[in-house]
Write a structure and sequence with these properties.
Layout: E1 15-17, H1 22-43, H2 49-66, E2 73-76, E3 80-85, E4 88-93, E5 97-107, E6 110-120, H3 128-135, E7 142-144, H4 151-167
Antiparallel strand pairs: 1-2, 2-3, 3-4, 5-6, 6-7
Length: 173
């Protein structure tokens, strides 16, 4: 069920976004197809078959795990956001964030993916080397893959939560 932006001036917190299964199901089917092709190549005596079969069987399992409920989500609450990927949580407090924005990934001048980028605030001392390395490739110090909606919509919601935190208007727990 897609997220619909509430008409009220405040967002209800906590707010949890779950990924849509469409793209994952597509990659699951593609990986199954190539894993089967690798098995068929192995039976025909092609030395590349086992490698292809094992690689795409691994990818099939990865995409299958992504479909498990609560394997991944983005949760916004009064203290910050939690990004869960493969059952591992990463929490970032609002106080560590400067701003959120959309980052376009391009290939040959064509936008292929859109991510939510964010930069840490000046006082944050976490991961300085990683942040500097990331800025070599994008304008962002960190990236989030949009979860359940378009990157621009989710970045706007994240910025709204960040603004509410800065103004001290977070919703009660």
């Amino acid at each position: 069920m897609p997220f619909e932006r509430p008409q009220s001036p405040t967002l209800p917190l906590p707010l949890i976004f779950h990924p849509k299964p469409g793209k994952t199901l597509l990659w699951l089917g593609i990986s199954l197809l190539f894993a089967t092709l690798g098995g068929w190549m192995s039976l025909r005596g092609d030395s590349r078959g086992p490698f292809l079969g094992l690689l795409f069987t691994f990818l099939f399992v990865v995409f299958l795990v992504r479909l498990v409920p609560n394997a991944s989500f983005l949760k916004l609450d009064r203290d910050g956001f939690t990004l869960r990927t493969f059952f591992r949580d990463h929490f970032v407090p609002w106080s560590d964030i400067d701003r959120f924005f959309v980052v376009n990934q391009k290939s040959y001048g064509i936008t292929t993916n859109r991510y939510i980028g964010y930069n840490y605030s000046e006082h944050t001392r976490k991961l300085k080397a990683v942040r500097a390395f990331n800025r070599l490739f994008t304008d962002a110090e960190a990236l989030i893959e949009p979860v359940g909606m378009k990157a621009a919509e989710q970045a706007a919601i994240l910025n709204e939560c960040l603004l509410r935190f800065r103004q001290g208007q977070t919703a009660p727990r």
